[in-house]
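Dear Dr. K.,

Following up on our conversation at the group meeting, I've run the structure prediction for DUF1289 domain-containing protein from Neptunomonas concharum. I'm pasting the input sequence below exactly as I used it, so you can double-check it against your construct before we proceed with anything downstream. Let me know if the numbering doesn't match what you have in your notebook.
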Amino acid sequence: MGVCALDEHDLCIACRRSGIEIAEWGVMTNEQRRDVIKKIERRYQGEIC
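The predicted structure tokens came back this morning:
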């Protein structure tokens, strides 16, 4: 998509990253990115984390 839009939980409605995760994505290590991706998978299942 290329453009994130945050919902009332500060999560992107498309990629499900938080505002902080979006801002820090470019400086995260691969391990940190993998951790974020695991959180995103839980968010798609309905968890807010």
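Two things stood out to me. The mean pLDDT is 93. The two ends are 22 Å apart (CA to CA).

Best regards,
J.T.
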